[in-house]
Design goal:
10 strands
Length: 170
């Protein structure tokens, strides 16, 4: 089957025009790319989160993607990372801990390090794991580990927070 550019544009336009909202007063009101998933629901599982990401994963009715990945939220988080001594970081993980009602954001990050002469040192990539408030603000560093977020950073986060629900794995 072939699709012309005109047909493809129409399909994309129609998809962009579909509403993607969730009315908290009605469980069946979500219209989007899959069923809505509320993280505070004690019965939620990772398959539901995966099927609903990114448009329909909510926490207390607020879209999680909008909370954590808005330009303002990412700027605040990256400023926090830089203030902790990292000169470069790429977000690579988002999870939710229902026990503490907090989120975890993981980064592949590079320390801003110098030798005794003031020359930059390539310390290699580490996993930087940060706990985040439900409002998308960094709280504290859960840990940092050599080698990046996968597998060591995620393994540590899961050891610290055994009920961690993966939201976004990159």
């Amino acid at each position: 089957m072939k699709i012309t550019k005109r047909q493809l544009r129409r399909i994309i336009k129609e998809a962009m025009e579909e509403p993607s909202t969730y009315d908290l007063g009605r469980e069946d009101s979500f219209v989007g790319y899959g069923p809505g998933t509320e993280l505070t629901d004690p019965n939620v599982d990772e398959s539901q989160v995966s099927a609903s990401w990114p448009d329909a994963v909510t926490h207390n009715g607020k879209n999680v993607f909008d909370t954590f990945y808005s330009p303002n939220a990412m700027e605040t988080t990256l400023r926090f990372v830089k203030n902790k001594g990292y000169y470069e970081a790429q977000e690579s993980y988002l999870g939710y801990d229902p026990d503490s009602d907090t989120f975890v954001m993981g980064f592949d990050a590079f320390l801003d390090d110098e030798d005794e002469y003031g020359d930059k040192i390539d310390a290699g990539m580490e996993a930087l794991v940060i706990t985040m408030s439900a409002k998308g603000r960094p709280l504290r560093i859960l840990g940092s580990f050599p080698g990046g977020m996968y597998p060591l950073g995620l393994r540590h986060a899961r050891a610290e927070l055994p009920n961690l629900v993966d939201i976004r794995l990159d």
